[in-house]
Amino acid sequence: MASKSKKEAAVVDRENLSEHVQAFLKSGGKVQEIPTGTSGQTQTTGPRQIVLSHKNNN
Fold this sequence. Notes:
Structural class: mainly alpha
Order of helices and strands: H
Number of strands: 0
Helix content: 25-40%
Largest sheet: none
Radius of gyration: 19 Å
């Protein structure tokens, strides 16, 4: 079984995303455009880094 190249996978992902967006819009969903520079971060205190994994150093 041959694996897809990154370029082929990106095309499939883009087509899949497009299908999902069209279905969302057709079902009455709306897309909200967020101005450049707007942050989704709601807290201004505490850690601001996203932890992707916790590796044990044993």
